[in-house]
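Batch 3, record 17
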Amino acid sequence: MTYFNEMYDSDGKSVREPYAMLREWVETMPSDLRQMKQAEAEDLFRRIGITFAVYGEGGDPDRLIPFDMMPRVFEQNEWRRLERGIKQRARALNAFLRDVYGRAEILRAGRIPSRLVYQNEAYEKAVVGVVPPRGVYSHIIGTDLVRTGKNEFFVLEDNCRTPSGVSYMLENREIMMRMFPDLFRTNRIEPVDQYPNLLRRTLESVAPSKCKDRPTCVILTPGHFNSAYYEHSFLANLMGVELVEGQDLFVDGEFVYMRTTQGPKRVDVIYRRLDDPYIDPLCFRPDSMLGVPGLMDVYRSGGVSICSAPGAGVADDKAIYTFVPEMVRFYLGEEPILKNVDTWTLWKDDDYKYVMDNLPDLVVKEVHGSGGYGMLVGPKSTKDEIEIFRKKIEANPSNYIAQPTLSLSTAPTFVEEGVAPRHVDLRPFCLCGDRIELVPGGLTRVALREGSLVVNSSQGGGVKDTWVLSE
Amino acid sequence: MLSRTAANLFWMTRHLERAETSARLLDVGQRITLLPNTAEGYQNEWKSLLNASGNAALYAEKHGDVTEEGISEFLFFDRDNPSSVVSSFEKARESGRIVRTALTGQVWDALNTSYQGLRKVERTPRGQLDMAGLTDLVTRNASTVRGAINTTQLRNDGWHFMNLGYGIERADATARILDVKYFVLLPHVEFIGSELDTYQWQVILRSLSAHRAFHWAYGGDITATRVADFLILNGESPRSLITSLYETVWHLEGLGRRYGDGVPAHARDKARELLEKLQTTEIDQIFDDGLHEFLSGIISELAEVTNLIHADYLTGAV
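Prediction for the assembled complex:
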């Protein structure tokens, strides 16, 4: 299989424009300087406190995600096209959510099977008929993209609930600017540090109508044991809002309040980094200690906004994913700018047969899985691994989808011996409020192991700074 | 400010101060063992340290016999001992991590770097460690954090809560370290006024990094009365009870002004009362009534102030 190397033109020799200057930068960097800088970067990350704990993996809770100093670069026109595609998708996804919690026109029209929506675990009956401010359900969408050619981009996944990783986008940039100011002086790289302000504006723009003054926004975190806690506190800090836990909030009458040193203070917008089942024990899981009893009643009566809205998860389910291009056509009357990856759904007999016959060539994922767990990468697996997975599929076919193994693009990456191509993906963060905004950049994850296609940080993935060159 | 944030700021600095105290207690113990001693060896001195830190029972359960190595490990590294240096520092860092948004980058950096340094020491084989160096490491780290707080934090309510943590814990610690003397002397009342007695008082001053300051303030001989006066009633002494309480009252008054009459200030009233009591007491009176009794009383009244701080500010009630 051949892969698109983002550094080179299709002839594989001439360096593409956006990488020309980086090549010189790499070639003139003495190896001892490189090692020094790498150590400096790690030290900075550790001192800032960005660490990553993986559920169930044990080991050092203060583990760092490896940071690769070689940036990943997009040209302006490449980015503009991605941006249009991502924003288009974001509009369609929110239109879909508005629809399925209302009249469900798309289901009536037979474009999506009702079963997939109404029997979906992420579909919340509790919010049927509740229209959040501005009709926005998913306020922060993390779109996972991969590239397979110069102009070939595919969406792997839409994350409509609480996508994480944006703190890496911001910190990677901070650290690169601190360590290599010259790179930024000699190149015109679009900034990303307006993100926290845009996020705050977005949250304020969806305050409930009952809120008459400047809205009070908070970030709701599961707590400091959560693996993304650093990100929660980082965003709260940059936005200048309180970082609250469930125990800090309580419901009194028709509003939500936080406990402060000066008594209760009303909260208007909650950016929650907590999944639906945990936000209100009276409405969802009664055993959850993380949420706020009564929150959903206040939400339904328009006393508080919750971002993303409860129930938004139904739009990013892997089974619904296959219909996103359909949503774009149905709601927007446009052709999708970004492509979906072909997906076989194993609850269909034809698809099932095809997948089972071709397991060694396919990637099989759990419908509700995440983080690179519970998946089979056919071409990278042994016969035994494939047979074990086959048994799992046979036991519960509707739990799986399959996709062709994509020839993920590679980007130049620092490795032991110098610079070598490694596979990358991209997650930009799209904000939806009164406007739809996308900062020029995102989180590039890189599979540091040679040949590996799995970019998840829990499985040997690292991160890179992502540049968009301005005109 | 969120009540939980305020609580974490308050306990962050309390635990930092406590880590320093445990390190100082260890230092007191080591200096005391350098004295010529009775036939029983150093047993009493080490036990007195445990009594002062309030953890004698836990130690007995875990280690049994009192040995220098056992105590050093217990006071410095033992995570089962809630007041050990490592436990306290870990709790301080955890609180800091929880309220990262309320700390400046410099404060977090100082706290986190100190903690990472301590973890490195923890992994070093004990035989290679210089115990006196450990106390220095802890006091130096604690000073770095304190300095970062006082030079970079906004003078807002969070800053008051941090300084309250320091003030109350320092008062508590000074009372406890002074009390060590009581435990040391308890079985040997006949030593009072002897050369050994003087030397022990001097050790207490040193362990509070106060022996030079003492000479500047008083000159002349070290006597029990003067040392106690210096550590309890002298308003120039930075770690004295009266100074710690004065600062505590100052910060509680700051909160009272900031929050206005709508927020209860019982803690401020109680702390003022305690401060006034110290301001109107003479050192001779304290010795006549019994130093140990006096110190025990102070320790429980400080606990009461802490409870009131919780009730006033840290529960988020109306």
